[in-house]
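On clarity, I found the account of how folds are encoded harder to follow than it need be. Since the whole study asks how a given chain folds, the encoding of that fold should be made plain. For illustration, here is how one protein appears when written out as sequence plus structure tokens:

:::
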Amino acid sequence: MIQNSISKQFTSKGMAYGRGDSDLVVAYMVVYQEPGMTSSYETYFGYGRDANQISDLAHTRGALENQRPDYFRQAGVIIDVIDSRTNKLVYRNFAKGDVIKGASSGTRAARIDAAVAQALAPFFGGN
């Protein structure tokens, strides 16, 4: 769902996505949290992209310092845009929100689309 959402964001802005000869590479990492616990899914983030530091920071801010009194489940997506020629980071941003237990696949897809759009909005010139 995240791959599809990223593809939609780029193609809606008139940019090709998913080609091997692209000028930009898009990487992403998912972070999931509950009180006192953080896990990350780095399969599409690549190596040497600060995944451990990002996960540690997310854990400190989202799980340890979080003052929410309720039992929460939240997830976030960190999106990197990388220059394919130099391998330099061009853009990094994230979006996060609460996880809705038992959400339908349509609701999940819509929430993922909204999070990806939020994370990529500054890259495309939005807020």
Observations:
- The longest helix spans residues 105-120.
- The chain is about 30% helix and 30% strand.
